[in-house]
Amino acid sequence: MPIDLPAVRILIVDDDKAICEYMQTLLEKDGFAVKALSDPTLVEEEVRHGEYHVIILDLMMPKLDGIEVLRRIRAIDSDIAVVIFTAHPNLDSAVASMKLDAVDYIRKPFNVDEFRDVLGRVMRKKGLARTPEEQLHKIIGDTIRGMRKEKELTLKQMSRRTGLSISLLSQIERAESSPSISSLYKIAIALDSRIQDLFGKY
Fold first, then answer.
1. Looking at the domain 132-199, which fold is it?
2. Is residue 186 a contact partner of residue 160, using CB atoms and an 8 Å limit?
3. Domain boundary assignment for the chain
4. What is 114-159 written as a DSSP string?
5. Digit-coded pLDDT (tens) for 93-117
6. Most confident segment among 2-16, 79-93, 114-128, 184-198
7. What pTM did the predictor assign?
8. Which residue from 87, 103, 115, 132 has the least number of CB within 10 angstroms?
9. Would you tell me how many other CB atoms lie within 10 Å of the CB of residue 154?
């Protein structure tokens, strides 16, 4: 039975390209679909077509400041979660951003764990957080893919060894399908491992 994993799409808006690249790498490692923009004038068009769940928005930018960008985002989408990101926090900007329904406010330079906590809160608030079951499917998929690549096996070779279709094996690896115990048993044997090894460190 396929599971509907939320493909959480995040837009980063910061005129500092190094920060954009760093945050994009960090968030992509955590499994998010990320795009970064260093030109705030492009945000409206991106929000109209990008179907984003979360926007991380720098407050102090040339051309347009973050509050004005947030005002324009709200004119297009009242529900998208916006996290304000600034090296110059002050009461006026905090109040203005909260009035425009920003969900959180992060100081630069930021602590990675604190940033992940804020993102986790935002995701739970918006109903985007993975359930434990979905998280388990992701761990199983990642573990199987890692073990298969270590043994330099293709999906086609795995399909021959297990009797499972290439399509099903691919869906299991991408956490798009819930694997049965019987499928996991066949995969474990094909990888010369124990079934419990497929669960990673869950």
1. 434 Repressor (Amino-terminal Domain) (1.10.260)
2. no
3. 9-125, 132-199
4. HHHHHHHHHHHHTT-SPPHHHHHHHHHHHHHHHHHHHTT--HHHHH
5. 777 777 888 888 888 887 888 888 8
6. 184-198
7. 0.60
8. 132
9. 11
Which amino acid, residue 124? R
Architecture of domain 9-125: 3-Layer(aba) Sandwich (3.40)
pLDDT tens digit sequence for 153-188: 999 999 999 999 999 999 999 888 888 999 999 999
What's the sign of the alpha-carbon dihedral 50, 112, 130, 175?
Answer: positive
Which are the contacts of 99, defined by CB distance < 8 A and separation ≥ 6?
none
**What are the backbone angles phi and psi of residue 39, rounded to the nearest 5°?**
-115, 110
- The DSSP call for residue 99 is H
CA distance 55 to 129: 16
Residues 102, 74: Cα–Cα separation, whole Å: 10
∠ CA(87), CA(32), CA(37), 5° rounding? 50
Please give the radius of gyration of the chain, using alpha carbons only, rounded to the nearest integer. 21
Residue 32 · residue 83 · CB < 8 Å? no
